[in-house]
Amino acid sequence: MTRSTIDFGIDLGTTNSAIARFAGVGAEIVKNNLGHETTPSAVWVDRRNRMHVGSAAKVRSEEDPDNVCTEFKLRMGTSGMAKHFTAAGRSMEPEEMSAEVLKSLKRDVAQRHGEEITAAVITVPAAFELSACDATKRAAELAGLTQAPLLQEPIAAALASGFQSTADNAFWLVYDLGGGTFDAAVINLRDGEFNVVTHRGDNFLGGKLIDWQIVERLLIPAITERHAMTGLGRGDRRWAAAISKLKQAAEQAKIQLSQMEVAEVLLELTDEHGRPFDFEYEMHRADVERLFEPFIVRSVNLCRTALSESGLGPGDIEKVLLVGGPTLSPYLRQRLADPREGLGIPLDHGQDPITVVARGAAIFAATQRLETMAAPPPPAPGQYAVQLEYEPVGPDLQPFVGGRVSGPDLAGYSVELIRDDARDPWRSGRIALAPNGAFGVTLLAERGRPNTYRIELTDPTGAPHDITPATLTYTVGVVDTQPPLTHSIGVGLADNEVEWLLKRGTPLPAKRRVTLRTTVPVRAGGGEGMIRIPLLEGEHDRADRNRRIGRLEVSPTQVRRDVPEGSEVEVTLRVDESRLIVARAYMPILDEEFEQVVNLQTETVPEQPELAREAAAEKRRLAAARREAEELNDRPALTVLARIDAERIVADVEEMVEAAKVDPDAATMCGKRLLDLKAAVDEVEDALEWPRLTLQAHELLQAVREIVAVKGGPQHRQALASGETAVQEAITAHNARLLQQRLDELRSLALQVLDESGDLQFMAFEELRTMQPEMRDQAEAGRLIAVGRQAMDRGDADTLRHINVQLRDMLPSPPPPPDPFSTVRR
């Protein structure tokens, strides 16, 4: 058949994928050659370099993990994440493997419907990074999908659930817990259009993590308790095959426990001495629910944050749309419905959570015109053609259609649109054509079925004439408005700050330009210097707390003359509806624009030893913040600490650090969870800032009072009185920045008093003496300290002043900026 709209939608999932096509007023899943509605997102390359996709690959992963790859969606857009298939000696990037899954889904359509498709809407998590969206687009191209708009999964789910809804000004919450990602989106349905009010999500929160918890905390302990399998775990390559079997068994048992209280795990394994044994284990739903709990807490916290940002409460939300296989868990549904520990919002059970995203994608695809539709050829002599302009799907019951008829002399000709319906026929009446063949007509459409209209062309005598096309179809249904940007996008600056260009929630498409200045000179013709501008996604003010998704680069070979330090660079970002990004750098000094200089690729994940060091440092920082929070008994800080504990952030990091020794997916997740931990500790420290400042204020005031009373004069006592008043005003205003400024002024007063009395140099010398091990020239430092001791004995403040200056100069230079890879500033 000839299509004018895309009509096919694909859910390219972490665990399973599915394809659906638009049909009538909804969408139907296209089953694969096994008769299943979903296809495992798995690829197996055998020793003959033959590719196997889907169930055959998934089953093979238990016995042959070196030649099978699953769950590669989580690696999309991250550099250095290729899978090496040992038997064939072949490596594939995540987008190449995703392309094989897309090809498999295309073959299913060809087999079931005899149609070779070259266009489809592909869904991505709303929390997906820009680099992952870009990689998904590349996968579509590799699969032969020349037109592949990307659609956010929560929007797809809402379309599937509400396409024929008559609700007005209703708010829904999409709870999308997939195999590897989580999205929470507040959706507003108004006047037949969906609008995403706000979104929160996590790219590394999904059923896969629950599977690993089952493996590591239930199955492995049960095995090692009875059998010799030293070091059994993801961090030991010797046990890769056994771990793969356990992972598959955990996934199957988890699915069974959605309907049963107990699931049997039966596996044949081999111990470290090469002896085979049968492993039998009864897995109880209650044990899995206990492991599920931290993930539910994380997801509920994200939902509550989304609601709070929307200015809404649970009572304002009509229903929760459940998306993803893990939402079939009875425990999860019970927890979500609980008003105290969950959301307390009615759950919608009307959709299949496993296929709802694919069906919603197909519905959206019915609103997207095919770009490859060629303009109709000029009609043959004596024949007529019509070009139509209208939206094929929309909320209007009286849609407007414009058209233009081409053919022989059209004087006195008219058109009429007719809906042949035995129950309720409708005719537009004859509409006279303009001299150029143009016409316009308002149709009458009904909800709940496709509305097909015959186009009847008649001449001045009323005689009918054939016209191509002879019909048009319009469907009444809810449509999506502009999708929102789900993460803020900015550029990292040399001082570890961020210049935000597009803020989260900005309707797409969007464009923004900002002027920055270089911090390094660039010498033309392959000389020195490179302009590097990191592109960041996230919400934190500190650049290193956000995800680096790519970079703008201008190298010396690209410039025709030298670019001095401090030169202007105009950076322009444009993001389309699919969250695909185009960035350009214009340099006024060269009057030249550099296009396609973006390397949109998430930076390579650090090696396991570096992850381990970072994790240890953050745990120390968390411990210090916890001690201070408990000492100050600060409720906001303690609340954040309780959330860190409830979500098991530290435990996640520790487990992933160990698994990252051999598992690249674990390394990727570890990097993400480390960012979560760093941001959470920042939040604790920020919460502690005010109680810490007020405590410092009371202690400093007492100390300065004593110094001024013993060593100060009348002018110092007057300045102290003014300072005390200023500190109290800052405390009353609860202004941390102002209070810090007033405390600095008090410190300056104390230093002034001590300097004028001569005591300051003695105190400074004592402090510098303790820093001798850090000084560059130990011999000279020792000599200066000996001279300083003699000056102290004599009470010689002037000599100590000179000694102190020399000792300070011997201390290490200030550390470099936290992000040395950025070469621009405001």
TrEMBL record:
<dbReference type="Pfam" id="PF00012">
    <property type="entry name" value="HSP70"/>
</dbReference>
<dbReference type="InterPro" id="IPR029047">
    <property type="entry name" value="HSP70_peptide-bd_sf"/>
</dbReference>
<keyword id="KW-0067">ATP-binding</keyword>
<dbReference type="GO" id="GO:0140662">
    <property type="term" value="F:ATP-dependent protein folding chaperone"/>
</dbReference>
<dbReference type="InterPro" id="IPR043129">
    <property type="entry name" value="ATPase_NBD"/>
</dbReference>
<dbReference type="GO" id="GO:0005524">
    <property type="term" value="F:ATP binding"/>
</dbReference>
<keyword id="KW-0597">Phosphoprotein</keyword>
<protein>
    <submittedName>
        <fullName>Molecular chaperone DnaK</fullName>
    </submittedName>
</protein>
<dbReference type="InterPro" id="IPR018181">
    <property type="entry name" value="Heat_shock_70_CS"/>
</dbReference>
<keyword id="KW-0346">Stress response</keyword>
<comment type="similarity">
    <text>Belongs to the heat shock protein 70 family.</text>
</comment>
<dbReference type="InterPro" id="IPR013126">
    <property type="entry name" value="Hsp_70_fam"/>
</dbReference>
<keyword id="KW-0547">Nucleotide-binding</keyword>
<keyword id="KW-0143">Chaperone</keyword>
